[in-house]
Specification:
Strand order of the largest sheet: 2-1-11-10-12-13-14-15-16
Mean pLDDT: 87
Shape: globular
Radius of gyration: 20 Å
Low-confidence stretches: 351-364
Strand content: 25-35%
Distance between the termini: 38 Å
Structural class: alpha/beta
Largest sheet: 9 strands, mixed
């Protein structure tokens, strides 16, 4: 794996090093690193012209579209804090806006919200501000009592699922995402000559992690079209669930897959053997939003475990509880411009045959 120590943004680094290599492609168009860099610069100018300043929070609405990837990179280039959101109901949006913005600030949105009729009249270059009345405010998160000043810009805000309560806005720096990518790729081989299918939504940390792995090695990012058989035909790497791998094997779909990173349900060893017979390595991993995706990983075998701890992560067992930390751990939870500080996240209780049940512990 290539280790990037360039002071340039990664897309500019690859634009200088391999300008004519395909960086990103969808079913209709392929874009080189040079073209991608130019497009990101153009989108960054759109931010400037529409009055968005470094440090502002911009909500990027979408799933895994090529335009979303480019908008995300433009935010990073301009020093804007990108908050990645799915297209949800108005109450869900309002709840997230109240976490991201003070009550006297409008929400800045880049992408279409289906509940807002005005967005249907705007193109992808246009941002819009949503002014809220007092009636719109939901019960906002309380300000963190252990807030910290940031020494490095926030590179993403991704919300937790809310399975253990109100969704929290997890703030990661670029260094957290890079540590996550580099640690996984020390075990799970992915090079500049490979391609990874972006089929997971970027508002989920697993989808965002694919983007950072792509940026880390300068490979090709393939945007999923929704036709799974077609999407899987020309990529070397993909993040899948076991049922998707089973469809590939049972339907004998042609594919260039070398490795898959599996999550979700139990993985039958017979399925893994069938994949291996087709030259596809099957890996599994466990991760969480607060640790920029994967914490442990392994090549799937008959052992009932979630694998071994990856580089740049830390783990400790204390009072029969499992905690994780390390260079991938988020800088904290974002609430209206303030960030809480925590240094360990509680994963679950022991003994366990696999890691599950995410809860969090803040440093005091």
């Amino acid at each position: 794996m290539t280790s990037v120590n360039s002071p340039l943004p990664l897309w500019e680094h690859w634009a200088q090093l391999t300008p004519d290599k395909v960086a990103i492609k969808n079913e209709a168009h392929a874009m080189t690193w040079r073209e991608l860099c130019e497009h990101v610069q153009s989108l960054g100018q759109c931010l400037v012209e529409q009055g968005v300043a470094p440090g502002d929070v911009v909500c990027l609405v979408g799933r895994a579209e090529q335009s979303l990837v480019l908008r995300y990179l433009a935010c990073l280039a301009h020093g804007v804090i990108p908050a990645l959101l799915s297209d949800q109901s108005k109450p869900q949006f309002i709840a997230k806006f109240d976490t991201l913005y003070r009550t006297d600030e409008p929400a800045i949105v880049w992408g279409n919200c289906q509940w807002d009729e005005l967005t249907a009249q705007r193109d992808e270059l246009e941002l819009y501000r949503i002014e809220r009345s007092d009636d719109d405010f939901s019960k906002a998160d309380s300000q963190p009592t252990n807030a910290i000043e940031m020494t490095e810009p926030v590179a993403s805000i991704v919300f937790t699922s809310g399975s253990t309560g109100r969704p929290k806005a997890v703030a990661h720096r670029a260094s957290n995402h890079l540590a996550s990518a580099e640690g996984l790729l020390q075990r799970f081989r992915f090079t500049a000559d490979d391609s990874w299918l972006l089929s997971l939504p970027m508002f989920h940390v697993s989808g965002l992690a694919i983007v950072w792995r792509w940026l880390t090695v300068g490979a090709t990012l393939n945007i999923a079209s929704g036709n799974f058989a077609s999407d899987i035909a020309n990529v070397t790497h993909a993040s899948l669930v076991a049922t998707q791998l089973k469809r590939i094997i049972e339907n004998k779909w042609p594919t260039s897959l070398k490795r898959v990173l599996l999550g979700g349900s139990h993985i039958a060893h017979k399925l893994v053997e069938s994949a291996e017979a087709r030259g596809i390595e099957s890996w599994m991993g466990y991760g969480m939003t607060e640790t920029a995706s994967t914490v442990t990983a392994k090549r799937v075998d008959t052992m009932a475990s979630s694998g071994t701890l990856l580089p740049h992560r830390a783990l400790k067992v204390e009072n029969e509880r499992i905690y994780v930390a390390g260079d991938t751990l988020a800088c904290g939870y974002f609430v209206q411009g303030k960030i809480s500080r925590f240094c360990w996240s509680l994963v679950g209780l022991i003994p366990k045959t696999s890691v599950a049940g995410i809860h969090n512990k803040s440093c005091v």
